[in-house]
Structures are given as C-alpha cells and as structure tokens.
Design a protein that fits this description.
With about 230 residues, this protein is an all-alpha fold. About 60% of the residues lie in helices and about 0% in strands. About 25% of the residues are buried.
Length: about 230
C-alpha cells in the first residue's frame, strides 16, 4: 500500500521526524490512503525492532517467552507494552524498558503537536465570518508558522486550497447575482441567499474536516484543482 523512500520516491517524500523514527517516508500522494485508520497504525515500532533482529514473530515469541498471539497483537496495537511484556521485549531488543517506551512517547508528542496545528489551521478559516478573506489570511499565517512539519505543510495546503477555491466561487457568484436578480428573480434577495448558502457550505466543510482530523483521517479535501 505504501512506498518506501528507498524505492525511488524520496524527492517527494514527507521527511518528517515522525516518519523518520519509523524508517518510513510516505509521499504526499499516499496521505489520502491513510483513511479510516489512526496514524499510529503506521508506527509498527515493535515490528521495526523485531526486523532489526532479523527475527520472525514466532522467533521473537520464543525468545521473550510471550505467546505468538501477544506479539501479533502488540505489533498492530497503538499502545506501548507494559510490565513484564515491556521488560521481556526490551531484553530481546537490547534496549532499556524506558528507551523502548520512550519511542512510543516521542511518537505521541509529535502526532499531538502536528494534529493540533492542523486543527488550528482548519478552524482559523472561520475568520471568513469576521472579515473578508479571513478564511485565507488566517490559515496562511498559521500554516507558514508550522509548515516546518511536512505533514502540516501538505495538509495545510489542502485546507487553504479549498478556501481559495471557495472564495473565488463566492466572488463569481456575487458578481453575477445582480444581473440574475434584475432579469430573472427581481423579487428575491439573491445576493443574501448566495451569501447564506456559500457560508453554510464553508462551515459544513470546516466541520467535516475537523471531524476527519479527530479521526486521523487525512483523505479529506482531495480536490481536482490545486492552486497551492
């Protein structure tokens, strides 16, 4: 499903510390495929350590005294191992328990920081209700501050790209509304109707995007037109 940077996609890869810790470097075009699943499922921290040993799951189970089912569950889990399991895995990987557990904590911190940045960029588009083009200006300001993270950079571009397209659409509709109002619907407050529907659409998209971010689903706003 995913392509490693070593296979020839490195020029376009997301060289983010989160993925570097995992030995994985997805391209931007792979981000939409991370759908309906927690980004943490890409961690595979235990799988990575096991592969360093050159061991199979069965061999690791035998070496640690843990069941094969436990090893399989841990490799697909988003939680750090604890107690006896943590101690035995640490011995097998020649790590201290604190070092192994720290890998999970580092991932959590990076993910939390980037997710919050993306959330703020998205919600800042609500500034369109306060001043003209606030839905573009505010997200761009936040995006420029946080775009050092490749994930924030690319997802922020998608959010801003939609807001630019929405603003262009609104300007076009408002420019033709007086003519339509004059010759087709003279008795209707068409400009107000256009404004209300356009803002409602934008608020719905912002809400849907916020919900997708909470689910760690990065497949939103994949529009055919990209201006940024």
């Amino acid at each position: 499903m995913f392509v490693n940077a070593s296979q020839g996609f490195s020029p376009a890869s997301l060289n983010h510390p989160y993925f570097e810790k995992l030995g994985y470097s997805p391209t931007f075009w792979e981000l939409p495929q991370i759908k309906g699943q927690d980004i943490k499922s890409l961690q595979n921290i235990l799988k990575k350590e096991r592969e360093k040993l050159g061991a199979t799951q069965a061999e690791l189970a035998k070496k640690t005294g843990l069941s094969l089912r436990t090893i399989q569950r841990l490799e697909t889990s988003t939680k750090a191992p604890k107690g006896h399991t943590l101690v035995e895995l640490s011995k097998a990987f020649s790590l201290t328990p604190a070092a192994l557990q720290g890998q999970f904590q580092d991932i959590d911190q990076i993910e939390t920081s980037d997710t919050l940045s993306i959330k703020f960029i998205n919600l800042s588009a609500l500034a369109c209700a306060g001043f003209p083009f606030g839905n573009i200006i505010m997200p761009i300001v936040l995006w420029k501050k946080k775009r050092g993270s490749k994930i924030v950079d690319e997802v922020g571009r998608k959010i801003i790209n939609f807001q630019i397209l929405w603003s262009i659409m609104l300007c076009l509709l408002l420019s033709i509304s007086p003519f339509v109002n004059l010759y087709v619907l003279p008795s209707q407050p068409l400009i107000l109707i256009v404004l209300a529907l356009a803002f409602l659409l934008n608020f719905i998209v912002i809400g849907f995007t916020a919900a997708s971010i909470n689910r760690n689903d990065l497949s939103f706003l994949n529009l055919p037109i990209r201006l940024l």
